[in-house]
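Researcher: I'd like a structural prediction for the single chain below. Treat it as a standalone chain; there are no partners to consider.
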Amino acid sequence: MTIEGWMAHSRYRHVFAIVRVDEFTREDMEIDQKIRVTKVVASEEEAIAEVERLNALQEKGEGGSRYFWQMTRLVPSSEAAPED
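Model: Treating it as a single chain, here is the predicted structure.
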């Protein structure tokens, strides 16, 4: 299914997370210490451009990380909070 197809079938607003994987970390580190969401943007186009920009910096030797984007949903805080 395309991104447009996913977006058409959700009641939540879709956003795009920029995710960094730190490859310079020790092998014995837990996975949650190696992966970070660095920012969230509103469009797929912004996400693609940002990932390309950040990975280009990595190729120039300015770090030991890899970036990718992932579509996710923005859930209003009133719906995300657990009920008592």
